[in-house]
Structures are given as C-alpha cells and as structure tokens.
Design goal:
With 597 residues, the chain is an alpha+beta fold. The protein is globular, with a radius of gyration of 28 Å. The chain contains 13 helices and 31 strands. Strand 24 and strand 25 form a beta hairpin. It has five domains: 179 residues, Rossmann fold; 86 residues, Translation factors (Elongation Factor Tu (Ef-tu), domain 3), CATH 2.40.30; 74 residues, Elongation Factor G (Translational Gtpase), domain 3 (Alpha-Beta Plaits), CATH 3.30.70; 105 residues, Alpha-Beta Plaits (2-Layer Sandwich), CATH 3.30.70; 91 residues, Alpha-Beta Plaits. The longest helix is centred in the last third of the chain and has 21 residues.
C-alpha cells in the first residue's frame, strides 16, 4: 500500500473533555458505523468504561476517508484515556503515531492533563492539531479558551478548530487537517521487517491477539516472526486490521500500517509490550527503543479470599498484564491471608479499576491490603534498599529513611487559591511557583510527598474548587523523612494486612482513626477483642470490642447463689481461653473502609 496515503493519529485530552464522543463522530462520518446502529462511546468496549464514563484502555480502529483532494486516505485512529493514572496508555499510543488531535473543553478550558498530554506529544515529535470541543454548551467561552491555548501552548488562532462532537459540527474540518498537517509514516518498505508491539488482548478461543505498528519492511502470512526481547519464533495464523470495529483479515501489512496478528500464543507472559518484531530469516540489525518501563507509584497486596484460588488468580493477572502493561505484580506470603501478590499501580484509580476488572472479567473474589508507596531505607551496613511493603520495614536496622516526592501541578480557579494552598500545606507540600492562565485560572506547582496525595487528595481538590480543579504529578526524587511503622494488634496478634508505613507526625491521628473504625467494623465475637495500634513496643491507641453476652444462668431459678457463681466462673475461663486461641473474623468491608482513612 502507498504509505503517503496513511495517517496514524491519537486523540488526547484531559478527562471528560469529549475524546470518545469525538471518536464516535469520526467513525460515523467515515462510514465505519451505520448511523442507524450508532451507540455512545463506541471505542470504549469495556462495561466498566461505559458505566464510569471514562476511557481506561486505548482503543484503535482503521478508517477510510475520501478527502477534498479526491484521494482516499487510510486513517489509523487511537482513542486514549485522560486520567493521570492512565498516562502510560497515552504514551505508548503516541509512540505508534505521527500526529495527535488535542481536545480542549470550551467551558473548562486548559486543565492539568491537557498540558501533560501536550508535552508527551511534543516529546514524541508529533504534529499536534488543537481543537476546542463543546462549543454548543451554554457555559462555553470560546474566546477565553482560545487565549489560553495561544498563551500556554503557543498555537496561533488560525490553527485552532472549533467543534461540537455532540452535534457533529467541525468533524470534517478536523479530518481535512489530519490529512494536510500530519505527515505520512516514515520507514523504508525495502528494509528488513521492524515492527513495534504496542498493545495486546487475550481471546479465550484464539489466544493472544498482538497489535503492531510496522515501521520498516512488510509482514505477510509466510513471514516467520521473531520477538527480539524473548528470541522466540512464531508462525502467523491470522493477519489483519481492525477495520470499522471488526477484525478484518488481510494478506500483508506494509510499512507504516497498523494491524494485528495471531500465532496461537497461549501463554500471556511470552509477549512484552514495546517489543520489536522482525523476520527470523532476514532480521533487522537493531531493535526499536520500545517504551520506558512504567514505575509503579502505589503498592498493595491482593489475595484470594479462598486460598485454593491462588493458581487461578495468577492466570488472571497474567492475562490482565497483557492489556495493561503498567500493572506489575510479584508473589508474596502473608501471615493473615496466606499466598497472594504484591501489586504495583500508577495511582489509586488504577488500583480500583484493576480490582474491578479481576473480579468482573475473571470471577475472582479478592482481599486488598492498605495501599502504600515505595520508600528507600539506608541500612547500618550502608546498603540502600527499596521497601514496598511494611513487612520489609525493620526500624532496628535503619540509619535513614527516604520517601518519594512528586512535582504536583494544579490548575484551579483564582478564587480557590487560598483553600487549595492550605490543603497542600496540610499535606506537607512545599510551594514552588504559580502562573496565571488568563483572568480566572491559575497554575500552582507544589513539591509534595506522594503518600499524601494518593488516597483522597484529588477528591478534596475537586470539592474545594467546586469541580473545576485538576491535577497532574510526576516523580521528582527521594528525600529524607521521619518514618515509622504502624501495626494493628488484635488480642496481642499483629494483623499484617493493616500495617502501614507513615510519617511520624501523622502517626497518632492515623492510629486513632484506624482503631475507632475497626472497633465499629469488627463484629462482636463470643470473646472480648482488644484492638491496639502500636509503633514498635509502644501502644499509642486502643479500643475494645465487647463480647456477645450469653445468659448461662437462665436455667437457674431459685436455690443457692453459689450455683450461679460456678457457672459464671466457668464461662469466664472459657472466654479467656477463646481470647487466647480464638480467631477474630474480619469482614471484607473492614479492609475497604481502612483504605479510605
């Protein structure tokens, strides 16, 4: 195929600025879907995406567009997520493109993720087309948003396209700009095959479906594929493109094209996102740079409720990693729950989505432990180790502790500066800079510990700014901190699921909150349960869950009081024994509630 007629592009934006709706209108205009059978969020094929109204996974589709110059162009469109937790999906999608459509809401204006995604596109040397969407809204202020795009992102007014994806206005203008502004793919058809693996899915009937972008050369049905990372060879069983939302078989994929192949790959661990594919009979000399390995920012333990389900959970996680390369996990053992996995996520929403997908798509019944970030510890022997679980934190052996800090970028309304700054400072944030983006918006930059923002910071920010605040963050460095390990003891036995590492100044507040919440959530047993929060050997908060009362003297009527006393003494001894050996039952809600503290 003539590569001068191919255009590979992504749609990028802040969350809820209309990327998926714009993608729907492009699909309709190019005839990829029949208007009679149209739906909402056509590329968001997960139930979870439709329910939450957010894009979780980047989706691609191939379209044919007859342009004004009379030529038919092949457009490979990738719709990407907008939430900060799914930035890795955006970055790997951009690596397979030559251009990006940057969408900005006409009412909200430029947000934190708009700026972050724009710089991601620039880093990948992409041509960016700025689009102001939702111009049909009563709250739209097109002139203000134009000024923001010109001053913050440096575009000229004539480069900005005005659209309403809901009403279908301006869609043809975007497609004409894509054809004119975005370059055709580079690469040489005559060179040895070099293709990038940028996504995968698992089909229960046909195995792993691998999505590739051909950079040099050509793939056909007789090509003997070789993965340069693993060195394994594969015979192609099906080759195709995702045309009009359907898997369509083709005989070959040439230089610049995007498509998929199946090779009866049953083990999900064989495929690495970002790997380079070549022809084993005529291999390329050097592999593509691939993707920067995503660094997990939040860790938690995931365990099956029934220990016998551990092998099934491992298989489910292997398949999950295929469609989400930023999800990492390693096996671990817990005193409370037995065998499970220590899992790394890019944020708390990412953790929540992975949990829901494992439960829905793979029918897993799970227990999650308290989330924490990765700390660094300098030991007495001079070694520096990374601690991603409280079990590895041994205060006796520590000389100095370091915690991760991030550069936090917030874009907020001017009238909420004071309350947002107070929030950031209460979370140990250090003010770095501010910049006014027009009359009513300001960009604030803080240096803040990651542990302080991963749980409820975004919710608090939204509340203080009446929904108009947005944030983005990037890892800065590890800085010295006074850290302690907080353990929860139930009747003198440490429950490692509730253990956490935190800053010394926050320990007493967190200990009291945990103890009070567990006192409410742990159901009354036939024996008394003492809940204690401890740091080392020091108890800093304590509460008791009263035992269930049993009327053992109900059968005694009249007679000597000594009969009743004997029964009461016997009951007391029994309860003492139970307290020593009885197992405290903790409901699943307790673990979920503790996450919110």
């Amino acid at each position: 195929m003539d590569k001068s007629l191919i255009r590979n592009f992504s749609i990028i934006a802040h969350i809820d600025h209309g990327k998926s709706t714009l993608a729907d209108r492009i699909l309709e205009l190019t005839g990829a879907v029949d208007k009679r059978h149209k739906g909402e969020q056509l590329l968001d094929d997960m139930d979870l995406e439709r329910e939450r109204g957010i894009t979780i996974k980047a989706s691609m589709v191939r379209l044919a567009y007859l342009a004004a110059d009379g030529k038919t162009y092949i457009l490979n469109l990738i719709d990407t997520p907008g939430h900060v937790d799914f930035t890795y999906e955006v970055s790997k999608s951009l690596a397979a493109c030559e251009g990006a459509v940057l969408v900005v809401d006409a009412g909200q204006g430029i947000e934190a993720q708009t700026v972050a995604n724009y710089y991601l596109a620039i880093e990948n040397n992409l041509q960016v087309i700025p689009v102001i969407n939702k111009i049909d809204l009563a709250t739209a202020d097109v002139a203000r948003v134009k000024r923001q795009i010109e001053s913050v992102l440096g575009f000229k007014e004539e480069e900005i396209i005005l659209t309403s994806a809901k009403e279908g206005r301006g869609i043809e203008e975007i497609l004409e700009h894509i054809v004119k502004v975005i370059s055709p793919p580079a690469g040489e058809p005559g060179h040895p095959l070099k293709a990038l693996v940028f996504d995968c899915r698992f089909d229960p009937y046909r195995g792993v479906v691998v999505f590739v972008r051909v950079v040099d050369g050509e793939i056909n049905l007789s090509t003997q594929l070789k993965m340069m990372h693993s060195g394994k060879n594969y015979k192609i069983e099906e080759l195709g493109v995702l045309e009009n939302l359907k898997y369509t078989k083709v005989n070959s994929l040439s230089c610049g094209e995007v498509g998929y192949f199946m090779a009866n790959i049953r083990d999900a661990r064989e495929i690495v996102i970002g790997d380079t594919i070549t022809d084993s009979r005529n291999p390329c000399a050097k592999s593509l740079p691939g993707y920067r390995r995503p660094k997990p920012l939040v860790f938690c333990g995931i365990y099956p409720v029934n220990a016998a389900d551990f092998p099934e959970l491992r298989q489910a996680m292997d398949k999950m990693k295929l469609s989400d390369a930023s999800f990492v996990f390693d096996p671990e053992n817990s005193q409370s729950f037995g065998f499970g996995f220590r899992c790394g996520f890019l944020g708390l929403l990412h953790m929540e989505i992975v949990q829901e997908r494992l439960e829905r798509e793979y029918n897993q019944n799970l227990i999650l432990t308290v989330p924490n970030v990765v700390y660094r510890i300098k030991k007495r022997d001079g070694k520096i180790i990374e601690v991603d679980t409280p079990a590895k934190f041994q205060p006796v052996d520590i000389v100095e502790a370091y915690e991760p800090y991030v550069n936090l970028l917030m874009i907020i309304p001017v009238d909420s500066i004071e309350s947002v700054c107070e929030l950031a400072k209460s979370r140990r944030g250090i003010f770095r800079s501010n910049e006014y983006l027009g009359e009513d918006r300001v960009k604030l930059v803080f240096e803040i510990p990651l542990a302080e923002i991963i749980v409820d910071f975004y919710d608090r920010l939204k509340s203080l700014t009446k929904g108009y605040g947005s944030l983005d963050y990037e890892f800065k460095d590890y800085l010295p901190a006074k850290l302690v390990k907080l353990d929860i003891m139930l009747n003198g036995v440490i429950c490692d699921a509730f253990s956490s590492i935190l800053h010394k100044d926050k320990a007493i507040y967190k200990a009291n909150a945990l103890v009070e919440k567990l006192k409410e959530l742990i159901p009354r047993q036939v024996f008394e349960v003492v809940v204690q929060a401890v740091i080392g050997n020091q108890v800093i908060a304590s509460a008791k869950v009263r035992p269930l009362a049993k009327h053992v003297t109900a059968k005694c009527y009249g007679g000597d009081i000594t009969r009743k006393r004997k029964l009461w003494e016997k009951q007391k001894e029994g309860k003492k024994k139970l307290k020593q050996f009885g197992r405290v039952e903790i409901p699943q809600e307790a673990f979920l509630e503790v996450l919110r503290i």
